[in-house]
Amino acid sequence: MAPITTGFGFDSTAAEVIAGVDLSGRRAIVTGGSSGIGVETARALAGAGAEVTLAVRDTAAGERTAAAIAGGAVRVGRLDLVDQASVAAFVADWSGPLDLLVNNAGVMALPALEHTPEGWEVQFATNHLGHFALAVGLHDALAAADGARIVSLSSRGHLRSPVVFEDLQFDERPYDPWLAYGQSKTANALFAVQATRRWAGDGIYANAVHPGAIAGTNLSRYMDPAVLADCPPLVHPEDIASVGQPIPPAPGTVAPGTLAPAIPAAAAPAAASPAAVAQPGAAPVLTPERGQPH
Q1: 61 in the Ramachandran plot: left (φ > 0), alpha (ψ -120 to 50) or beta?
Q2: Angle at 280 (CA atoms; ends 23, 53), nearest 5 degrees
Q3: Domains of the chain and CATH, by start
Q4: How far apart are the C-alpha atoms of 108 and 222, rounded to whole Å?
Q5: Which helix (H) or strand (E) holds 135?
Q6: SS3 state of residue 156
Q7: What is the C-alpha to C-alpha distance for residues 289 and 294, in angstroms, rounded to an integer?
Q8: How many whole angstroms separate alpha carbon 38 and alpha carbon 64?
Q9: Residues identified as active-site
Q10: Which 3 state secondary structure label does DSSP give 258?
Q11: 51 SS3 class
């Protein structure tokens, strides 16, 4: 398959990427839209005319962000990705078609092993499973849009680890914050592959993106301050911690993911993922004993 190329570079901004694009009448959800690149993604989409919903845990912060996005139709909905009841409630509250789902929220490099009430390792639960359940639950809304896009925020951190299906919870191996983060980012990419493969016939295409090296967001809140202090202003700490060398910033990479051409499902490789067993319609219930919805 020929690579998709654009005229944009590593220093392109979201505003530059989306310039001239009219999203009037389109509806978008941005998870984690009250801070970091989620704010800028929401700002760019709203500036192009989209109706944007900020899906956030802290609705007060979401309301402040919405008020600061001038001239846009921005609303706020509560979503806690580690709480399956919260995901189900968000899905149940949504009505009408959905054109863009930007799975942006995430956590990175928790220093100690933590589990959700259901028993999932927190990075995997937040970064992948919550978004997986959200997308499956919103499948019918996405299909109703006739040409919907899902953007799955992955990372070059996926190079740190495959999805270790035999030990997702670190029961049998020592916990490593970056391996946990890496497997969650690999899962994000695999989800995009399988969502496109299985849902292209419904007019739904997914793109996985590495958002680039952007320091100073809440994603780095668990990082050692000494490590952060050594990061150049536009270098994301994961790019130092994961591979030892910083990479150029790419603040405009999320917007291309929402606008990129559809990739034919036949061109997407097969991937082992819980997405393979999901049935669209309602947010699935996920149990760590099986690693699958039931």
Answers
A1: alpha
A2: 35
A3: 14-278 (3.40.50.720)
A4: 7
A5: helix 130-137
A6: helix
A7: 11
A8: 14
A9: 181
A10: helix
A11: strand
- Give me the residues paired with residue 102 across strands: 30, 151
Non-local CB neighbours of 24 within 8 Å, separated by 6+ positions = 49, 50
* Torsion angle in degrees (nearest 10) through CA of 110, 284, 188, 291: 70
Give the DSSP H or E segment for 63: helix 59-68
Strand blocks (E) in 135-291: 148-153, 204-209, 286-287
Q: Which tokens belong to 103? A: 């799975």
Q: Which residues does residue 57 pair with via DSSP β-bridges, in sequence order? A: none
The tokens for 98 are: 């959905």
Question: Taking a C-beta distance cutoff of 8 angstroms, is the pair 215, 254 a contact?
Answer: no
Residues 126 and 82 sit within 8 Å (Cβ to Cβ):
yes
Burial class (CB in 10 A: 0-12, 13-18, 19+), 202: middle
Query: How do residues 180-231 score in pLDDT, each as one tens digit?
Result: 999 999 999 999 999 999 999 999 999 998 776 665 555 555 556 555 555 5
Q: Tokens representing 200?
A: 């292209």
At 102, which helix (H) or strand (E)? Answer: strand 100-103
d(CA 138, CA 142): 6
Please name the amino acid found at residue 218.
N
What pLDDT, in 10s, does the model give residues 9-65?
Answer: 777 888 888 889 999 999 999 999 998 889 989 999 999 999 999 999 999 999 999
Statement: residue 128 has pLDDT above 90 = yes
Which residue in this structure is represented by tokens 């192009």?
48
36 vs 285: CA distance, rounded Å: 29
Q: pLDDT at position 16, please?
A: 87
Cα torsion 184, 87, 270, 212: sign:
negative
Spatial distance between the Cα atoms of 131 and 40, rounded to a whole number of angstroms = 20
Alpha-carbon distance of 71 to 46, in angstroms, equals 8
